[in-house]
Structure formats: structure tokens, C-alpha cells
Amino acid sequence: MRVELRQRSADSRLMVWLSPLLALLLTLVFGAVLFAALGHDPLRALYVYFVKPLTDAWSLEEIVVKATPLALIGVGLALAFRTNVWNIGAEGQYTVGAICGSILPVMLPEWQGPLILPAVLVCGVLGGMAWAAIPAFFRVRFGSSEILTSLMLVYVAQLLLDWLVRGPWRDPEGYNFPESRLFEADAVIPALAGRLHFGTILALLAVAALAVLLGRTLKGFEFRVVGAAPRAGAFAGFSERGSILAALTVSGGLAGLAGIAEVSGTIGQLHPSISPGYGFTAIIAAFLGRLNPVGVVFASLLLALTYIGGESAQVALGVSDKIVRVFQGAILIFVLGCDVFIRYRLHFRPMRRAAARAEEAP
Amino acid sequence: MTGFEAVILTIVTAATPLLIAALGELVTERSGVLNLGVEGMMIVGAVTGFAGAQLTGSPYLGVCASMLGGMALASLFGFLVLRLAANQVASGLALTLLGLGLSGMIGEAFIGQPGLKLERIDIPFLTDLPVVGAILFGQDPLVYMSIALAVSVSWFLFRTRPGLALRAVGNNHDSAHMLGVHVIRTRFLAVLFGGACSGLAGGYLSLAYTPQWVEGMTAGRGWIALALVVFASWMPLRAAIGAYLFGGALILQFHAQAEGIALPSQFLSALPYLATVAALVILSRDRWTARNDSPSCLGQVFVPDR
Amino acid sequence: MLRATIFAAFAMMLALPAAQAADPVKAAFVYVGPIGDHGWTYQHDQGRLAIEEAFGDKVETLYVENVAEGPDAERAIERFAREGADIVFTTSFGFMNPTVKVAKRFPDVKFEHATGYKRADNVATYSARFYEGRYVIGQIAAKMSKSGVAGYVASFPIPEVVRGINSFLLGAQSVNPDFKLKIVWVNTWFDPGKEADAAKALIDQGADIMTQHTDSPAPVQIAGERGVHAFGQASDMDAFAPAAHYTAIIDDWSAYYVSRVKAVLDGSWESGDIWGGFAEDMVVMAPYTDLPDDVAADAAAMVEKIRSGEFHPFTGPIYDQEGALRVKEGERADDGMLLGMDWYVKGVDDKLPQ
Fold it and tell me: Which of A109, C16, C26, C186 holds its CA 20 to 30 A away from the CA of B275?
């Protein structure tokens, strides 16, 4: 028996719902086997991992805190990926957004007032946009692959941050430790509850705006056409260059916003490490969310749950951090793998040499 | 050994893991598959290599084990992106996550153990030659292998029929398919080769470079290897030059410091990445070179339909 | 049958408060790295295990490893506070502000932050005087080195590291006033490959004794390969290069952790700042190996002198690189100066990165 993929004429509506369930099932089976093999009660382990974090207000809040930057970045990436623009440098745009947003609170800490916070956020967005504009410019002007240029710029951004917090932006009262001064109260994004801050509302607004843009407007249609069929887009008078520039800078701006929102709202100062890989995890969120803004929100929440659940498993069961990461990797691999059923269906046919050869040359 | 020789030796050993991993990824990318999981495969190779050497008592078997470790992870990636047509960027990132976790799990038993070192080869008389002796003839076996690998990958890609087929698959999978090349199989083999090389690069770290196992010991070298592939514009011999330049920048920075010359290390560390971006831009400006060199189907899904 | 079930349920309800009353003290640890780093985090985890050994059932220990400094730190710390931990140890400098923030919200939970300087009623800080050990190995280095040059693999130019460099050189100069120290900053706490490269560069430049303020055994291993000698860091690294390894400065948190948990158990815990050295057994020298007997005996005697307070590594006169007198003849540097140390002593052949 030989299994092969056949492309569906249209994406399967049923499978859009079924494939995550299948992935979940596989994850549970894998998790049960993994935990049992390591000598833990599999049911309890899975409960601690997936259910317990959903049962109390604090961990729900923490899931939302963790999901906020993922959703902000992911929704921008969804727009970019739909336009067939492969911005995988969101981590760098996040970092530069955080740096630019910190210019005012770090360099002019005396400046206080109601205007400072909007200024900080705008600087963050502009920083992210500017960093994303570099690969955008190279792509549009010279045709350089933005996959690689944007990725390279991630490291440059991280080194820039490192240099700043260890050098010129070091807290003068901080005993030479690598961190900036703490943001003054006016430059901190106000909290909604606990660690949950106003950035979450901004993320939801961004999601809503992009959902409307992509789903309901001509501009959104333009992005999708340019992404799916650039030639058709050109015939329709859509500018491919314009769309690429817009997609990259919008996704960069949102990543920048996520960066400054984390620094101002969650951390309160610049550090050498301000992101546990949000820019990369958001790529996964964008795909899990099927490049649909609302889907990205759910995917971000799911990813956040795997982190929070993993931590809770470490504490409650004494499971090591490595196992948590293995499990996370496995979840992602199952979800990515199961996605195949949306676009393709399995076709079973008996294994024959002739059949095998037929595949080689149609 | 004179100072100059010692410096060159250090640069060569620093560059070797980067070169090996980059050559593997280069072949993978030439076939049109972008595997961002190099770091994950590398760290798994580092731990399986170390474990293999400790358990069998032979660093050479460790080298084999490191390649197998990298290939195991690569085959999972290949299955995902080639058989299941999953997105390559996301799968590669997931692979890195999985690899970092797996390596920590496997390695738990080996922490704090001094490893077996892959010994340098000393060739009588030749190694003692002035200046070139130690550089040319006093390296560990994997250094020679990495250079041989660069030459043979270059030869394979540009001088053999399977190499031509591999590049064809990467440049235009539809036409390659029409011509009867088995796209999926070619790509799967290329992914496996990439995994073996990444694993070997990891094994080089845990068996020759610093014979020990510590968690996270690859410390981002997989990502540098990815940059190197682009810097080399997918040309194996340029990858070798690039690796030595990257390695040289790193080592000379340390020497400058030890001499008392203070340089802002972050700017030096950023140079390879900036150089890569510049190389990429210059390459793509030159359209002819661009068309010739970069695999145009990089990252695209191929499903044979009929 | 039904009655039996109801009875059992009752019994459980009755038993529950009793079980809670006998709840063990929970001590929680937030680690920045993997416990398998065989360095910083590994040593803290040894301290955690010492608590378990010392108190058995009376204490339960919890930990999360690999907690990145940044947005995740605060959550990891708060989780323990919520899980009912009585005392939480946060073992990296970058956890300082998150620890203080969480401590404000949980006044009944005790927090201990390693290497920081912000305290509160329920936040104590602790750190170790590694510089005491560095003075001892500085003396050994000056006695054993043939070239008169030692190599120092340094991580980041924070006071902790600068202090160690100064102390090492002061120790060396007390034996050989012309002793030279070459320094390479690798800008990482942990990257075996980079540490090895730095060690090679230093040895190539004439250093025949290696010391390090980074966490992996790589520099010791390189010293072994190149036939020079080395001092281990954080844990005993003798196994990685038996012929090269003279001794190591070991971080030993066990005694401190056990005493702090004991203070929680008997209700005597108070906030404060402990900066422990040889006297508190927080800094311990690994066995002296491959050293002539008199050198080893001198080293052990020096440890005793520092332990008893008879001698302080930073005793004047101490001049900085520009030749300005920083500590007067016969005086000792106070802790304030040591904590904020951002200058090199005279004789360091390096510019402090700014």
C-alpha cells in the first residue's frame, strides 16, 4: 500500500477544524507515552500541562500576557506571508522597536507628562518599521531575498541592543550591570490587571484592523492577489513593489510595537535579553493561525499555554525543562504536519512498481 | 610552534564546524529546501557524538553517531516538509526547539564527564616543517575532511549529473519534474546530507574542539552557518573562504584584545552579518549571477500532481 | 458500600487540614541556566540538593531552570509565590527587578536574590567573595608561572569580574611585582567554543597559566592540551585536565542555603545582605593538585589568614592604572568600593571596556 498526497481543488472546510483536533490527539498520545516513559503519571502530567493553567485567573492572565507579543507580531507576519513576503526577521524588528521606544525614557528621563507614553509607542513602531524597511528596500530595489536579509538583521539588532545596555545606556546607578535605568511611571504602559497591560488592547485593535483590511477591503484583496499571483495583480494594476514595501513595514511596525510594549509594559527597562524568541515563535503562531488574523490570536494563546503549562509541569511534577521543550517541539510538529490534510487528501493505492514509476514521469 | 602558526591553527579549528554545517545546508538549499533547524541538528549531533564516543570508547564511532543524530532529526524534517508539504520556515524553527530539548535529555547522563578527544594527526617530518608544517599537517582529521568536503561538494554540484539534477530541482522543480527527476527523493537526500553535516559539525564541537558535553554548547553556531551559506552565494568553495573569514574575525578580535587593543566587540561580531547582507545585495544586483546562483525555488512546496 | 464511601469522604475532609498543618516548608529556586551547565547553575542546584539532604521531609524544594532574564522572569518568580513557596531564591543578577516587584505583591513570602543590590523587608541579597579565592590563585600563579604572564578569560566588565581581576593581580604582584596579566573579554558567561578560542589566543600570546571568569571547563581543557596550567571556576574542573588543573575556586552555596531555610523553619529569617567568603564556607578551594608542597601549604595558609580576617586582599597601598592612590597604606577597601569597582589596579595590561 502506498500513501500519497493529492491536492484538493479547494481547501477542506471540514479539515480546517479537524486537523487541529487530530494534532491535539497525536500530541496527547505522544505526551502520555513520553511522560509515562519518564515515570510520571501520564494523565496527571497532561492535566497539569494543558488543563490546570486554564483553571485559575492568574495563569489565564499570564497566558494572555505571553500571547500578547506573539499575536502582535504574528498578525503582522500573517499579512506579510499572505503577500508572499517572507519576513523572518521580526525578532530584529522587535528589538529595534524596543530600542527606539526606549530612546526617550532612557535619554530624557526628566521629561514626564501624558504625552510621553504615546511618543514612546510611536518611536517603537517607527523603529520596527525602519528596521523592516531595510530588507524591503533591498528586495524592491535589487531583488535580494528578504528571508535572508531580514534574518541577518536580527543579529545586528541584538548586538546593537547589547552594546547600548552595556555601554552608553547603562544605568548610571546600576553598578555597571548591563541594564538601562527603570522607566519612569509616565513612560510605563498602564496595567489592566496584575501584569496584564494596555498593550493587550493594542494587540486586539491591531488584529481587528488587519482582519478588516485583509477580509473586507480592496487593499487587502490587493495584498492577497499580489501574494498569490503577482502577474494577475500586475494586470489588475496592483503594484507589487508597493505591496511588498507595505507588507514588510506594517509587519515590522507591529513587531516594533510588540517590542516596546514588552519593555515598557512588562519589563520596565532595557536588558540584554528582552525577548525569549518572540519574533521566531510568532512565525509559528502565524502559520498555526493559518495566516488569518483571528486564527493568529488563538494560535498565540495556544503557544502561550504550552509555555505556561510547561513551566507548571516543571514545578508540579519536577519534569525537566528539556522535556518541556521536546514536548513543545512535538506539538508544533504535529500541528504543522496535520495541516497537510487541509490542502491535500491522502490517496491510498497498492504499491506496484509501475505505479511507483508513473509518479516519476507523469 | 610560532605565534603565527598557532593563530592560523586556531582560526582553522574555529572555522571548521561552521564550514561543515554550512556545506550541508548549502546542498539542502541548492535542492530548494530551506532548513532553519541547523542549530537543532547541530546540538543533537554534538550530544549523540559525545554519547557515542563515551559508550564505545572510540571518538571515530562518536563521529559516526553525531552524523546519525543529525540525520535522524533531518529525516523528521524531510518527512514534514516533503511528504506532508508543511511550511519549511515554521518546521525548521520547530526542529530547533525539539533539538535543543532532545539534546538536553540525552545529555543529562554525560554532564561533567571529560570527553574523548579526536586526536590530531601528526605526520612524521611533514608536521615538523617550518611555518607550513603544523598548519598543513598537524590538524585533526575532521579539518582535512571539511576541506575535502568543500571540494567534493563543489565537484558534485557542478561536475556530475546527480549534482546537475539537484540544482535543477532547486531552480525549477516543475521543469525538473517534467524531465523525470524525482523531486521529492532528491530533496529528501539533500536534507539528509544537510542533517549529517550539521550533526558532524556538532560532533566536531563535542569531540575535537572542546571534548565535553554541556547543554547549549553550540551557542548559535548553527545560525552563523545559515548566514555563511548566503554569504557564499551557495558556492561551496566560497563557503570555505567565508568560514575562514568568519573564524578569522572572531579569533583576531581575541588576539587584538590580548594585545591590549580595545575594540567594541559587538561591532566586530556584527560584521559577518552585515557582510552577508552586503554580499546578498551585491549578488542580486548582478542579475546574471543571481539567476545562476541562487536556488529560485528555495522554500517552495512541491507536490507532484497529475 | 455507599456508607463506606461517604465515611471515606468525611475522613478525607477531616484529614485534609491536618495534612496541611504538617506541610513542609517550600523552598523554590529560579535558575537562569540549565542545571547541567556544570558551572553557575549547577552549583546552585547542588545547594538545593543540600537542603533536601539536611531537612528531609521537613522541606520540599522546587525549581525552574533556563528562565531567561526578561519578560519571563517575573512570572516564574510569581508562580512560586503563588504555589505556596515560603522562600524563593532567584539566582541571577538579571532577576533583581522582577524579584523586587513580586516581593511587593507577596509580603509574606521571603525572597533571596543572588548578586543584586536592591533589598526590602522580605528581600535579602547574598553573594560570594570570590575575590578572596582569586587572590590565592594569583599568588599560586606568580609562583608557578615561568613566563610571568597569566591569561584571564573574562565575561562582562561588571564590578564582580573587575574585582576578581584586580584581586588576582594583587595576589600575583605580592609574589612577583612585575607579573603580567592578559585579559580577553568574551562577552558571554557560557560558550565553550568561544572560551576555548579566547584561551588559545591568550596562550599563544605567552600566558602559561589560565584563569577564567566564565562557566565552562573549556579553558581548563585547552590549557591541558597546550601543556600549560589552569585554575577551575565555579566547580572542581580537575577531571577535564588532570595534569593542568592546580585548584579551583568553588562556589559553595550549600551552607548558606541550609542556614536560610533553617531560619525560615524556626521563624528567625530576616532580610539582609550576606557577602560570604572563606569564613562562611561560601567560597572553597578545590584540592591543590600538581603543586609543590610548599606552594600548596602557602596557599592553604593564605586561605586561613583571609578566613580569620587577619588579611584582606584589598589592603593598601593600592594604586589604579593612572597611578592614583585608591586605598591608603595599611587601610582596607570597604565593601562599597568593592561592590562598585570600575577601575583596574596598576599593572593590568588592558583597557576596561566602557
Answer: C186
Q: Is any Cβ of chain C less than 8 angstroms from the Cβ of B2?
A: no
Question: Domain-by-domain residue ranges, chain C?
Answer: 2-128, 131-250+285-339
What's the gap in Å between the CA of A16 and the closest CA on chain C?
32
In A86-160, where do the E strands start and end?
none
Nearest Cα neighbor of C136 from C338, C303, C308 is C303
B93-141 confidence digits (pLDDT tens): 889 889 988 998 888 888 778 778 777 766 666 566 655 555 565 678 8
Indicate left, alpha or beta for B85 from its phi (over 0: left) and psi (-120 to 50: alpha): left
Facing residues of A196 across strands? A193
pLDDT at B28: 95
Distance CA C195, CA C219 (A): 6
pLDDT tens track for A275-290: 888 998 898 888 888 8
Is C205 at the interface with chain B, CB within 8 A? Answer: yes
Whether C131-250+285-339 and C2-128 are alike in CATH topology: the answer is yes
**pLDDT over threshold 90, residue B268:** no
When pLDDT is averaged across residues A343-362 and rounded to a whole number, the result is 56
Measured in degrees and rounded to the nearest 5, phi and psi for residue C249 equal: -90, 115
Contact B91 A336 (CB under 8 A): yes
For residues C179 and C185, what is the distance between their CA atoms, to the nearest angstrom?
Answer: 20
Q: What would the mean pLDDT of B28-56 be, rounded to a whole number?
A: 94
Q: What is the mean pLDDT of chain A?
A: 86
Look at B259 and C200 and tell me if their CB atoms are within 8 Å: no
Task: Tell me, yes or no, if A355 comes closer than 8 A to chain B by beta carbon.
Answer: no
What residues in A contact C68, CB-CB < 8 Å?
273, 276
Q: What pLDDT does residue B138 have?
A: 62
The pLDDT of residue B90 is 83
The full DSSP string for A172-191 is TTTTT-S--PPPPGGGSPPE
User: What architecture is domain C2-128?
Assistant: 3-Layer(aba) Sandwich (3.40)
Dihedral angle, C-alpha C163, C164, C168, C171, nearest 10 ° = 50
- Distance in Å, alpha carbon of C298 to nearest chain B alpha carbon: 30
Per the CB < 8 Å rule, is C192 touching B255? no
Name the closest residue on chain B to residue A334, using Cα atoms.
B80
Q: What is the mean pLDDT of residues B193-203?
A: 97
Minimum Cα–Cα distance from B9: chain C residue: C200
Please give the CATH superfamily to which domain C131-250+285-339 belongs.
Answer: Response regulator (3.40.50.2300)
**Cα separation, A209 vs A205, whole angstroms:** 6
Inform me whether the pLDDT recorded for B300 exceeds 90: no
What pLDDT score was predicted for residue A136?
Answer: 94
Positive or negative, the CA dihedral A81, A85, A88, A91 is negative
And the C-alpha cell for B74?
A: 533531518
Q: Which residues of A touch B227 (CB under 8 A)?
A: 148, 151-152, 155
According to DSSP, the residues that pair with C273 across neighbouring strands are: C125
**Is B230's CB within 8 Å of A360's CB?**
no
Residue of chain C with shortest Cα separation from A183: C97
- For residue B230, list chain A residues with Cβ-Cβ distance below 8 A: 145, 148, 152
Selected residue of C158, C186, C352 to mutate for chain A interface (largest A Cβ count, 10 A): C158
Please give the pLDDT value at position B304: 63
The verdict on a CB contact (< 8 Å) between B262 and C34 is: no
Which CATH topology does B3-293 take? ABC transporter involved in vitamin B12 uptake, BtuC (1.10.3470)
Q: Where are the domains of chain A?
A: 1-40+319-362, 57-306
Size of interface A-C (CB pairs under 8 A): 85
Q: One-letter amino acid identity for C83?
A: E
The answer to whether the Cβ–Cβ distance between C201 and B111 falls below 8 Å is no
Homologous superfamily of the A57-306 domain (CATH): ABC transporter involved in vitamin B12 uptake, BtuC (1.10.3470.10)
Cβ separation C204–B114 shorter than 8 A: no
